[in-house]
Amino acid sequence: MSKSNEMIRLAINIGYTVSKSGEIINPKGRVVRGTIIKIKNSSYKTFAINDKGMSRPILVHRFVAYRKFGDVALDAECIKHLNGNSLDNQPNNIEIGT
Question: Over its length of 98 residues, how does the chain's per-residue pLDDT go in tens digits?
Fold first, then answer.
């Protein structure tokens, strides 16, 4: 399993969730600010969790896909934003693609 997928599962196990608006909620019930990164020609939201003393980033759209679709999302070649806005991580905007 990739380190990214391990971090997604760890985040779930320690209590991170996602709101209907696509915001990440930490185990204390607070919205996580996160950061925005550029990959190729798109921008994506990320958030980080600590693992063994190191901060590890997680792509929000992949986390949302895992919460929505379960393990099948971990094997997905890509996660699509249906409206084309890579910063819109609402669960109803996230789909598994190829």
Answer: 688 899 999 999 999 999 999 999 999 999 999 999 998 889 999 999 988 888 889 999 999 999 999 999 998 889 999 999 999 999 999 999 87
Taking CA atoms, 30 is separated from 51, 59, 74, 96, in Å, by 20, 18, 25, 27
Full domain range(s) for residue 18: 3-97
SS3 10: helix
- Residue 73's domain is classified under what CATH number? 3.90.75.20
Q: Is the pTM of this model over 0.90?
A: yes
